[in-house]
UniProtKB/TrEMBL annotation, chains A, B:
Protein name stated in the entry: Phosphate-specific transport system accessory protein PhoU
Record-linked PANTHER family: PHOSPHATE-SPECIFIC TRANSPORT SYSTEM ACCESSORY PROTEIN PHOU
Taxonomic lineage of the native organism: Bacteria, Pseudomonadati, Pseudomonadota, Alphaproteobacteria, Hyphomicrobiales
Biological role stated in the UniProt entry: Plays a role in the regulation of phosphate uptake.
Entries under SUPFAM superfamilies matching the protein: PhoU-like
Superkingdom of this protein's organism: Bacteria
Chief site of localization: cytoplasm
Subcellular location: Cytoplasm
Subunit (UniProt): Homodimer.
Gene Ontology terms: cellular component: cytoplasm
InterPro entries assigned: PhoU, PhoU-like_sf, PhoU_dom
Length: 236, 236
């Protein structure tokens, strides 16, 4: 951590925002690359995602240190304090997105080559595209200070949940059809769950970004849909 | 949030520590109750865990607000700043443990009654006991300021990972034996994964607690074991 006493509060905050944008770009890239690696059995690409995660961790540490130093040295009040604390929280969610993408990448070997039926690969790919759109969108709306767009974006998370429940059911079907699919399908199940969880972190980021900009909470969210309602009766 | 200007820094920090201990107790109780609810198909208990999670969230918000106010008002340096920031991070991990326990509780209905073979229930129960020991231990060692115990505790996480990989394989076997087990077993798979992730959060807490107490990092950890190495070949 260097000395930042000569720079202004706003300059410091801009630097922190730049780190948020970098982390956002990286988390989007890792999400896309890990899914591509999974669907194309690309082990080299998977390795790149795994090593990208150390860059993500380093960025978060840098952001945390800068933010805490800024709070301690400048004692910001109200809006300014909200911005710095909000940045710490957003960075924490972005770092978790990196972790989840890394976890998808780590499963590339276990899923194995040619194991994913085409229609399933298509569903997972579509889900990843939705997720990527959300990751890129939330950072964009934060950087451009567009709270209205965040309300809309948060509501879009429902599409990911619907897509996820559908992938969950599709995976159950493949497992029931042929027991030889079970191992690779369980890994795909975790990958799909990770994509859904990336969507949840985007929701957290949207809520924090909205609070930073407006000082109030995003309107209460719909009850969350997920696969915990799919039972043996319903699934068969 | 009230006015704390008259209380000393140490009094404020003690209050924050009390919140950490409360959250630790609650996360242990939620972990145990959610697993019991799962293995005994106890829907009422599952509901209690789900509603406990709102208490957990409220505690974290309170801790966050107190900690940030403390940093802004008192501008603590070095050791003191480390303690406050460490508390924020530990609270974030404890809150995630609550989320994971809630997610286990939400699956109680989907797994269904009498669906879990006895030997599998035993393995999951044993895993939960290990996890619970870790959750309780890490908060205890933090409260008693015992960094040496944290080194040992962190290394114990490996036992959870070994147990988890074994549960993972056992679940694959049940799914392969009879396709009618697949839906409930996938939910159990997520539950076991959640227990394993609770162990990871304990590791994070141990690392933060150690840093708060000593100012240095825990010695580098062993490479993490997980089920991503279980392939279709190995699994069959």
């Amino acid at each position: 951590m260097g000395e930042h006493t000569v720079s202004s509060f706003d300059e410091e905050l801009e630097h922190i925002d730049r780190l948020i944008r970098d982390m956002g770009d990286l988390s989007g890239a890792m999400t896309r690359a890990s899914t591509n690696a999974l669907l194309e059995s690309d082990n080299a690409l998977a390795q790149r995602v795994i090593s990208d995660d150390t860059i993500m961790d380093a960025k978060q540490r840098e952001l945390d240190e800068r933010a805490i130093t800024l709070i301690a040295k400048r004692q910001p009040m109200a809006q300014d304090l909200r911005s710095v604390v909000g940045a710490i929280r957003m960075a924490s969610d972005l770092e978790r997105i990196g972790d989840l993408a890394k976890n998808i990448a780590k499963r590339v070997g276990a899923v194995g080559q040619g194991a994913t039926p085409r229609s399933l690969a298509h569903s997972i790919d579509a889900m990843a595209s939705l997720v990527l759109q959300q990751v890129n969108g939330v950072v964009e709306h934060y950087v451009r200070r567009n709270p209205e767009a965040l309300v809309h974006l948060r509501d879009e998370d429902e599409k990911i949940d619907i897509q996820y429940t559908s992938v969950f059911r599709e995976l159950l079907t493949y497992m029931m059809e042929d027991p030889r699919n079970i191992t690779s399908c369980t890994h795909l199940l975790f990958c799909a769950k990770n994509l859904e969880r990336i969507g949840d972190h985007v929701t957290n980021i949207a809520e924090n970004a909205y609070y930073v900009m407006t000082g109030s909470q995003l309107p209460v969210q719909r009850p969350k849909l997920d696969e915990t309602q799919v039972t043996a009766e319903a699934g068969s």
